[in-house]
Amino acid sequence: MADILIIGNGPAAITAAEAIRAEDRKRGITIVSREALPAYSPCFLARYLAGEVPRDALFMRDSDFYEKLEIEFIPEKEATGINTTDREVILSDGGRLSYKRLLIAAGAKAVVPPVEGIRGEDVYVFKNMEDAEVLRQKAQEASTVVVLGAGYIGLEVAEALAVLKKKVVVVEKEPQVLPRMIDSEMAALLRDYLKRKGIEVLTSETVQKVVRNNSKRLKEVVLYSGRSIKADLMVVATGVSPNIDFLKGSGISTDRGIVVDPTMKTNIEEIYAAGDIAEIEVSGKRKVNPIHLNAVKTGKVAAANLLGIRKTLDAPLENMNMLRFFDIFVFSAGTQTPDVVRKKENGSLWKTYLGEGRLKGVQIIGDVRRAGQYLWQIDREYPFSSLKRLFDHLL
Hints:
Layout: E1 2-7, H1 11-23, E2 29-32, H2 45-49, H3 65-68, E3 71-74, E4 79-83, E5 88-91, E6 96-104, E7 108-110, E8 123-125, H4 129-139, E9 144-148, H5 152-163, E10 167-172, H6 184-196, E11 199-203, E12 207-212, E13 218-223, E14 228-230, E15 233-236, E16 240-242, E17 258-259, E18 271-273, E19 278-282, E20 285-288, H7 292-306, E21 321-325, E22 328-334, E23 339-345, E24 348-355, E25 358-366, H8 371-380
Parallel strand pairs: 1-2, 1-6, 2-3, 6-18, 8-15, 9-10, 9-15, 10-11, 17-19
Antiparallel strand pairs: 4-5, 5-6, 7-16, 12-13, 13-14, 19-20, 21-22, 22-25, 23-24, 24-25
Helix pairs in contact: 1-7
């Protein structure tokens, strides 16, 4: 029986394991993963696709990580169910792992919309190392690629394919790129920049059907507007959904993700959840917050409480993310308010959102050198007036 069993091997799981081991050298830790690989960062998969970073650079820890921390690592075993009464995790090979305490950090899966013809060869998602490896291989012989979705994954993939000299057309159902990260003015600037880099972005467009030839290979992508795009490959990047299907019948409370309290505890004793699978409260609303920083924070909180050390999750920032496309940066954190301080200069645009005398949110495209300072002030809720010098360049 595992003292602490962790389902998953991503940033939340690894952070939790390290935090547990830092406090307790004797507690048994078992990590079970559906993938064969040791822990790697999904944040740089697009850079790997573009050939900008080597495969080895993706791995988050040294090859002897599990051995040094005395962690039992069980690869290529997917959790398919949980018997919470007997405290057992059921595996894809029919095996069972018993536990005293359980952390579910099983992450999320790519969502594929119900579009005619979308399932089949030449249409791929981009979520894990296997996806990146397949797309690297397939892209070698492709000339035109359609990317469905203009969120951060879709745009990162589009950039990588453009670096590989592919013609890229991005299709987005919303009226702008990065619709859940930046406002329309910022998005328009980014879209124009991507166009100058050779990426065509079609907004307020949806795919009606994917047309295949007699060999079932991708032939063209037909949009509801009537436009048809001849393509060799298609990448679906329309969002992710927490991996909660295997929890059916377990009694663990789920909505969009696993419902947890501020200690990351579920409704079942001795069971916690962290990372992309956990549904937490952000800005007064319950939501899944699939960003790296959230995975690290929730992993640390879960680890403490698994050891009986009470710790609660600090109020997470909404939409906190920093992205780089070619040589331009985009940063967003916090919430938008009607009280905006705005400045555009030398190709950069800064917007700071104020409320109750404090900085509530910020969006930047271009010069992000002050991003960390903005984030620090938002997180600590310092009065705007006390750090006015930080904003002098905007006034």
